[in-house]
Hints:
Blueprint: E1 11-15, E2 21-26, E3 49-54, E4 57-67, H1 68-73, H2 75-100, E5 115-119, H3 128-135, E6 147-151, H4 153-160, E7 189-191, E8 203-209, E9 213-226, E10 235-248, E11 256-260
Parallel strand pairs: 1-9, 5-11, 6-7
Antiparallel strand pairs: 2-3, 4-10, 6-8, 8-11, 9-10
Amino acid sequence: xxxxxxxxxxxxxxxxxxxxxxxxxxxxxxxxxxxxxxxxxxxxxxxxxxxxxxxxxxxxxxxxxxxxxxxxxxxxxxxxxxxxxxxxxxxxxxxxxxxxxxxxxxxxxxxxxxxxxxxxxxxxxxxxxxxxxxxxxxxxxxxxxxxxxxxxxxxxxxxxxxxxxxxxxxxxxxxxxxxxxxxxxxxxxxxxxxxxxxxxxxxxxxxxxxxxxxxxxxxxxxxxxxxxxxxxxxxxxxxxxxxxxxxxxxxxxxxxxxxxxx
Length: 262
C-alpha cells in the first residue's frame, strides 16, 4: 500500500552480501539463427555483452525512543508495532527512489530510463486513444502476460472517469473480480503514488514488462534495539536498516515505454 514498485512484476534479487553484483546486459535482437546446408560450416556471430553493476545502498528508518513503561505494559504489541512502522519508513523511501531517483549515488529510478512513446496532447488529461497508443507502443516481445501500466492514483481516478459518447465508462471492473481490478485495454494497472501526476512535462504513465526492472535486496530488514544508550532516561532506542539497489536492465529495445504530458 505504500508503493508499487515491488508489486509491479519487477524482479527482486536477494543476496547474502552487499558486494558489487555485475548483471549482464546485451541486445541480440538484430541476430537470427540460420538454415544450414548438409556439411555446411557454422558461421560465427558473437554476442556483445555489457555489464550493469548492482550496488548495495544503505537505508535507515531513523532512530526512535520508547519508554520502559510502554515496553513493560505491552511488550509484544510494542515491538511488533515498532518493527512494522520502521519497515514501512524504509519501504516508502525505497519506493520513491526506485521510481524517480536520478542515480549516481543511489538507485536509478524507473522513469529515468524508460523510453518515450510520445507526448500527450493535453497537460492534465489523457485520452483512451493515447492509452491504447501507449499499450501498443510497447514492442510486441514485451506485450506479454507480465505487462503492466503504472500510474499515480490520481491519474488512475481520471482514467476511470473516461466515458464514451453515450456517457458510459470506458474501463470497468470485471464483475468476477475485485472492484479495484480494472484493466486498461486489457492490461493490469499498478498504482504507484511516487509516479508523477499529470502536469506539464511529467512522465505520468509507464507501460511494459516490468520484469526488466531489477530490485536488489541484501538479506532483509534489520531492527536494532539499543538498550543501554538511553537507559539513564528509562528509554530504549530502536532503528531499522536495510541495503538495496534498483535499475532498469535495458540494452536498447525499450521494454518499458512512457507518456510525457504536454
